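Reopening this one. Same input as before:
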Amino acid sequence: MLSQPSYMIDEMMILMTGEYDQYGKLCTRVMDGAAAFLVDRTPLQLLDDTLTYIGFDLRGAMSSAKLILGKKMKYPVIVNPYLGVCLFPVNSPHKADCIWFNPEHIMKTTAAGNKTKVELSNGYYIMVDLKLYYFNNKIQTARQLMRISKERGTHPNGPTFLLQPKKEQQLAKEKTGKYNFHSLERKQD
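Same output, byte for byte:
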C-alpha cells in the first residue's frame, strides 16, 4: 500500500499513530473522518509540518504547553490555534506506537479493565492501553490547554488589560526635551 507524501492536520483528524510501511520506514496512520490512510512522515514530523505551515513549530508548541500547564509529562500540543486543534499523546511521543488523539472527536470513554474503550465521532472505537482515569485526565488537560491559550490570545494582558487609564493626563515635554513617559510606568514593589 502506497502512502501519501504529506498531510496537514485539521479539525477533521480524529487520531494518528506511527506505523511502519512495507519497507520498514516509520510513517503515520491517520484517521480523518471515515477514512484511514498512511502518510510518509513520522507523527512528530507531521505535527511539525502542520505547525510550520502556519508559522509555528513543534518545539515552540511543546515549550508553550509546558509553560502554560506546569510540570506535566506527555504534553498536549496545539497544532492549529486558528482551527482550535489540540492533540494529546497517549504515551511518549517518541515511541513509534504513540497514539495522538483529537479530544473533539472522543464521544465516550469507558473502563475495560486496565484499558480504556474510546468511542470516536466516526462510529468506531479503539482500545487504549491506559486506565480510564489517566486517559480522561489527558483529555481534560488538552481541553485546559486549549481554553487557557484561547483566553490568553483574546486577552493577552490578562485582567490588567481591562483596567481603564486615568482620564486626560497629559504627556508633557520636560525641560530635558523628553516626554514624561515615566509617569506611565508601574511602580515596582
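So the earlier flakiness isn't reproducible anymore. For the record, Strands lie at 13-20, 26-32, 35-39, 77-80, 85-89, 99-101, 106-112, 115-120, 125-128.
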